[in-house]
Specification:
Elements (H helix, E strand, L loop, with lengths): L2 H14 L24 E4 L2 E4 L16 H18 L3 H12 L11 E3 L2 E6 L8 E6 L7 E5 H5 L6 E7 L5 E7 L6 E7 L5 E15 L5 E6 L8 E6 L8 E5 L6 E6 L5 E7 L4 E7 L8 E4 L7 E6 L2 E6 L7 E6 L2 E9 L5 E8 L4 E7 L2 E7 L6 E3 L8 E4 L10 E6 L6 E6 L4 E7 L11 E9 L5 E9 L10 E4 L17 H4 L4 E5 L9 H5 L7 H16 L8 E6 L1 H12 L4 E7 L5 H5 L7 H8 L6 H10 L13 E6 L8 H13 L6 E6 L10 H19 L2 H11 L1
Parallel strand pairs: 32-33, 32-34, 34-35, 35-36, 36-37
Antiparallel strand pairs: 1-2, 3-4, 4-5, 5-6, 7-8, 8-9, 9-10, 10-11, 11-12, 12-13, 14-15, 15-16, 16-17, 18-19, 19-20, 20-21, 22-23, 23-24, 24-25, 26-27, 27-28, 28-29, 30-31, 31-33
Helix pairs in contact: 1-2, 3-13, 7-8
InterPro entries: AB_hydrolase_fold, Pept_S9A_N, Peptidase_S9_cat, Peptidase_S9A, Serine_Peptidase_S9A
Protein name: S9 family peptidase
Keywords: Hydrolase, Protease, Serine protease, Signal
Length: 722
């Protein structure tokens, strides 16, 4: 038995014993695993990099069967359980508290699509949804078209990646993943009989468009490197091996995706990177036709589109980073006429074309807007929302004609809300506000949006929420969250689970740092490639600014982020560990340099446009090395850290967080808690059930409260002492 196997076995045995004391060392604490250092180094661009934990990458990946690797991960999981066991009562309390805020028998608002209206619903106690429909006219009896709880029975992991009803309403295509690898199996169900057709698509990957006659569909799959390179045409009743290639992308940096125009006349075949795109159209009436190229790819130019009765509405960033909107005909797609020019103030984020209106999703001053244009008159108006700070977007609007427009809305203090907007009267009709069964009074909470200057003078927006009466004297803790990559803006939205910290005296803040597109596309560009460190600096400077403003104090801040946001966590604890009382890094992208040097990994070639290509570019290599969290771990004190991973994660492979934790254990100079929890049967998103995932959230909050302090408990203790 290896040393790591012995650690795992001992930890597992002691966890089963009646007394936690048996797992403790002479200091009264569980003993953390000690991963072996195995000499490994490489030299590139004249620089030698040591990587003593490279062995944690199983050479047979995506199969993970190396006993040394598995022993280490199991030992870390056992250590996690041993450290958290004394806090089990708190975890259980938090979980029940969070669960009580969920309406267990919840349901979506039904939406009409053709002859039926569709919705999903949770039954009380179920982890997964059941999908329903009922006829719009005649017999209004509801029928279940997909029973997720039944499909998920006895499975450790289960996720539906997508579902689509055929145009004639008779067939349902749906895809499931049962291990978190995001390699889905797609099946087709006859809704008239309830039987499955023999058609099965393995390795399905996000996207399906039915032919107008409902006899076939387009889809993309994941190749051996987990990349989508081909659009296939599958005819019902045939084998997957016989599916015809409609389009194949040869450039290794480009991926392929598919969608459908709002008028349902065309399948939209999009290929691109994070910076360059190219679109083709294929009529749904004839998938054997030659795809129509809208405009050939130009490096650095992105565009997307919708189709309205033969007219293209194209969003493109050729003349302004915040995009403009142009029109063209399907017959002459490269001849563009400008409809909406680019603007420093208006960030154009999407266009959806209905028969009776054109909907433009925008962001102005960091705030979501929906502009509606009457195609008959050209008159434009904006939807007016009820609060000064919020997030809003188009909701589920499947049909081509929209007499009313379904919208999604929320704010830091307003739960998820579904509106129908009537363009004729400019009125919002509230269809649903997410219910908090245990009780929630909006007026008891306060939200603010402030600006904090970064070290280069750039003002970074920050959204904050706290309970009324929160003192701004530096006495209270604060949870700071951000993502900061890929142009994804973290919206100032609502979270019921967040209340567990806020009600215990914490403030919660979202730092809208560069790398997201919160203030426009340039905001994203200013946080990527050679400007990547702006993202990390913004987060640190926001933390300092919030402390200076009295919302908290250095050392009382907890922080969290996942994936690229986990990279952010790794970078900021290297840069300014003294600011943080505890940090959670979920599936963190922390081994940046090694991953970007390996083109065999699923995402690497397509990610060079985001991070740089250190193989060909010596400056990109040096820059990446200078901030890569794993490579920059140094001998200093670090805050308490909770790190998570997924064994089947194809996006951030499990060895990145594992290597980072192993190196931190060896190098850091403090005795603070360092935990690694690997989901052995899940992937990038953690556990899949709504209660299982909520339990993991309870574990994180318990970690923060026990490591950074619990003002509510402290107040109760003080009161009892008096």
């Amino acid at each position: 038995m290896t040393k790591l196997a012995m650690i795992a076995a001992v930890a597992a045995a002691t966890l089963a014993a009646p007394s936690l004391a048996q797992t403790e060392t002479m200091t009264g604490q569980p003993t953390p695993p000690d991963a072996e250092e195995r000499p490994h180094e490489f030299t590139m661009h004249g620089v030698t990099v040591e990587d003593p934990y490279a062995w944690l990458r199983d050479q047979s990946y995506p199969i993970v069967d190396d006993e040394d690797v598995l022993d280490y991960l199991k030992a870390e999981n056992a250590y996690f359980e041993a450290v958290m066991e004394p806090h089990q009562e708190l975890i259980d309390t938090l979980f029940e508290e969070m669960k009580a805020r969920i309406k267990e028998d919840d349901a979506s608002v039904p939406q009409k699509d053709g002859d039926f209206e569709y919705w999903w619903a949770f039954e009380e106690g179920d982890q997964y949804r059941t999908w329903y429909r009922r006829p719009v006219a005649g017999d209004r009896t509801a029928e279940a078209i997909l029973d997720e709880p039944e499909l998920a029975a006895d499975k450790e992991y289960f996720r539906v990646g997508g579902l689509s009803v055929s145009p004639d309403g008779n067939l349902l295509a749906y895809a499931v993943d049962t291990n978190g690898s995001e390699r889905y199996t797609l099946k087709v169900k006859d809704l008239r009989t309830g039987e499955l057709l023999p058609d099965t698509i393995e390795n399905w990957r996000y996207g399906l468009v039915w032919a107008a006659d409902s006899d076939s569909f387009l889809y993309t799959d994941a190749d051996e490197n987990w990349r989508s390179k081909v659009v296939y045409h599958h005819v019902l009743g045939t084998d997957q091996a016989d599916d015809r290639e409609v389009y194949r992308e040869e450039d290794e940096e480009f991926g392929v995706g598919i969608g459908r125009s709002q008028d349902r006349a065309y399948a939209i075949l999009s290929t691109g990177t994070n910076t360059t795109s190219e679109v083709r159209l294929l009529p749904t009436e004839d998938f054997t036709a030659e795809p129509i190229l809208v405009s050939a790819r130009e490096t650095g130019r992105e565009y997307d589109l919708d189709v309205r009765s033969g007219q293209l509405f194209i969003r493109v960033n050729d003349e302004h980073p915040n995009f403009r909107i142009v029109t063209a005909s399907v017959d002459n797609p490269s001849s563009w006429q400008e409809l909406i020019p680019g603007s420093d103030e208006n960030y154009l984020r999407g266009v959806t074309t209905f028969e009776n209106l054109i909907a433009i999703e925008e962001r102005i001053g960091g705030l979501d807007q929906v502009r509606l244009i009457d195609p008959a008159t050209g008159m434009a108006s904006y939807v007016r929302f009820p609060e000064a700070s919020y997030t809003a977007s188009l909701g589920n609007n499947p049909e081509f004609r929209a007499e009313k427009l379904r919208l999604n809305y929320e704010s830091m203090i307003t739960p998820d809300t579904v509106f129908d907007y009537d363009p004729a009267t400019a009125e919002l009709e509230t269809l649903k506000v997410a219910e908090i069964p245990s009780g929630y009074t909006k007026e008891n909470y306060v939200t603010e949006r402030i600006g904090v200057p970064a070290r280069d003078g750039t003002v970074v927006p920050v959204s904050i929420v706290y309970k009324e009466g929160f003192p701004k004297d530096g006495s209270r803790p604060l949870h700071l969250y951000a993502y900061g990559a890929y142009g994804y803006a973290v919206p100032p939205g609502f979270s019921a689970s967040r209340l567990s910290l806020i009600d215990r005296g914490y403030a919660f803040a979202i730092a809208h740092i560069r790398g997201g597109d919160d203030l426009g596309y340039q905001w994203y560009l200013d946080g990527k490639l050679a400007k990547r460190t702006n993202t990390f600096n913004d987060f640190v400077d926001v933390a300092k600014g919030l402390a200076s403003a009295g919302y908290t104090a250095p050392g009382k801040i907890v922080a969290s982020g996942g994936s690229a946001g986990g990279e952010l966590m790794g970078a900021v604890v290297n840069q300014a560990p003294e600011l943080f009382g505890a940090v959670a890094a979920h599936v963190p992208f922390v081994d940046v340099l090694n991953t970007m040097l390996d083109p065999s990994l699923p995402l690497t070639p397509g990610e060079w446009q985001e991070w740089g290509n250190p193989i060909e570019d010596a400056e990109a290599f040096q820059y990446m090395l200078s901030y890569s969290p794993y490579d920059q771990v140094t001998a200093q004190d670090y805050p308490p850290l909770l790190v998570t991973a997924g064994l089947n994660d194809p996006r951030v492979t499990y060895w990145e967080p594992a290597k980072w934790v192993a190196k931190l254990r060896d190098v850091k100079t403090d005795d603070n808690v360092l935990l690694l929890k690997t989901n052995m049967g899940a992937g990038h998103g953690g556990k899949s059930g709504r209660f299982d995932s909520l339990y993991e959230r309870a574990e994180e909050v318990a970690f923060f409260l026990t490591q950074n302090g619990n003002p509510a408990a402290d107040s109760e203790t003080a009161a009892a002492g008096r």
